[in-house]
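Page 37, continued from 36.
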């Protein structure tokens, strides 16, 4: 890899997952407005934010591969981002209790030549009934406050997940399979025994 790979995210979870590909990369969090535009759906918001994260550092790192990603929780088409307060975190967890919801992630990779590769993943997650006392204790721990939907499946909240359908790593914050396909298309990752992926005609 002649050009550096930059992860445009402050999430330590995404960094940990990206390390599994064995690629060296730098981290440069992108400061962008992640609020939904008027009339924008949750899915459209997730896709847009992932791309804007990568684009936000493109000017300062024009000769790099830029990887942006965003994750959101959707309950009955209602978008749930990161809670802004403890009360909102409690409300989110109460809404998710005893129900299924969807976790969606978008991944965007911009190459030094300006090519844009994108992928999207959705996982269905089922929560058992969450005891109110547990919700309050979990929120008090601080763990939900920087997580979409106010929970981290890899931490204590995972004890109440009865099942999932789809990618587990997507729920953590970076869908590994989809990300790997983007890295292959860009020529950055070559798994042993697999030929480099062919680029789609632009």
């Amino acid at each position: 890899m002649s050009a550096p790979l930059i992860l445009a995210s402050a999430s330590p979870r995404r960094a940990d997952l990206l390390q599994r590909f064995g690629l060296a990369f730098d981290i440069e969090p992108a400061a962008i407005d992640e609020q939904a535009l008027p009339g924008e759906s949750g899915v459209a918001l997730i896709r847009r934010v992932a791309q804007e994260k990568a684009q936000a550092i493109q000017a300062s790192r024009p000769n790099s591969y830029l990887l942006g990603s965003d994750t959101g929780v959707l309950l009955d088409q209602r978008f749930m981002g990161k809670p802004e307060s403890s009360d909102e975190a409690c409300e989110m967890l109460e809404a998710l209790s005893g129900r299924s919801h969807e976790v969606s992630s978008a991944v965007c990779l911009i190459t030094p030549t300006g090519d844009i590769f994108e992928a999207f993943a959705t996982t269905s997650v089922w929560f058992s009934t969450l005891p109110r006392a547990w919700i309050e204790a979990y929120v008090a721990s601080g763990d939900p406050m920087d997580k979409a939907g106010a929970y981290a499946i890899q931490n204590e909240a995972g004890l109440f997940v009865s099942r999932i359908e789809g990618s587990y790593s997507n729920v953590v914050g970076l869908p590994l399979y989809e990300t790997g396909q983007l890295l292959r298309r860009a020529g950055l990752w070559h798994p042993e025994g697999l030929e480099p992926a062919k680029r789609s005609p632009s």
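The chain has one domain: 5-185. Flag for discussion at group meeting. The longest strand covers residues 116-127.
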